[in-house]
Amino acid sequence: MGRGVIGRCANPSCKAPDSRLLRYLNNTVCAFGTCQAYATEQVAARRSATASAAAGQPVGPMEQCFHLEQILGVRECEPTELSVPKRCAEELDEDDQAISYEVRGQFGMDETDAQRAGFDTRWVRLTDLIKTIEYEALDDALSKYELSVHHRMKRARVDAYNRQWLESSA
Ligand SMILES: [Zn+2]
Fold first, then answer.
1. Is 69 helix (H, G, I), strand (E, B) or coil?
2. How many Cα atoms occupy the beta-carbon half-sphere of 8 within 13 Å?
C-alpha cells in the first residue's frame, strides 16, 4: 500500500469525498470504514472477473468488449452451460449452439472504463459483441480470422505430427 495521494474518493457513497487522503484501491479510495469496504469489494469483483475469464467462461453481464483487437478462437457451444445428459448425448440440438469468440481487446463497464482497464483476452458471445462493436469492424476481424485459420491450423498439425514422428524415431 502506497503513502497515498490527496484527492476525491472514488467511492460514490463516500460521505466527504473531496480532499481526502487516498490510500486504498491504488490510491483512489479514502480510509473511511465504508470506503475501505468499497475498495475490498472492488478488488474481489475484479479478481472473480479475472478468474472466470481465465476459466474460459464468458464475460459477465456487467463487463463488455468495447475495443476488438484480434480474434483468437471460436467455439460453437458452451459445455459449462449444458446439462450432463446433453453433454453425453450423441448429438447436440441446434438450440444448444451458442457461438462465442476468444477476443483480445478492451473490456469494461463502459468505453472509458474499458480504455482504462487495458487489454485482456476473454470469451465473448457473438450476441454480446454485436451490441458493442460496429458491424463492419466485427465482420472485418472475423473474416480475417476465418480466412487465416485453415492454413495456420493445417500447418500447425503438420508441424506437430513431424515433431512427434522425429521424437518417436530418435
Ligand atoms: Zn471515501
1. strand
2. 3
- d(CA 66, CA 47) in angstroms, rounded, equals 20
Distance 14 CA to ligand 1 centre (A): 4
Give the pLDDT confidence of 69-103 residue by residue, as tens digits.
999 999 998 877 778 888 788 887 777 788 999 99
Give the per-residue pLDDT at 166. Answer: 92
- Ligand 1 midpoint to CA 110 (Å): 23
Centre of ligand 1 from the C-alpha of residue 1, in Å: 16
**Each residue of 117-129: pLDDT tens digit?**
889 999 999 999 9
Q: Taking ligand 1, which is a single-atom ion, which protein residues have CB atoms under 5 Å away?
A: 9, 11, 14, 30, 32, 35
For residue 71, the SS3 value is strand
Mention every residue, 6+ apart, whose C-beta is less than 8 A from residue 108.
Answer: 63, 64, 66, 114, 115, 116, 117
Task: Give the Å distance between the CA of 135 and the centre of ligand 1.
Answer: 41
Contact 54, 66 (CB under 8 A): no
153 CA distance to ligand 1 middle (Å): 52
Higher pLDDT, 39 or 86: 39
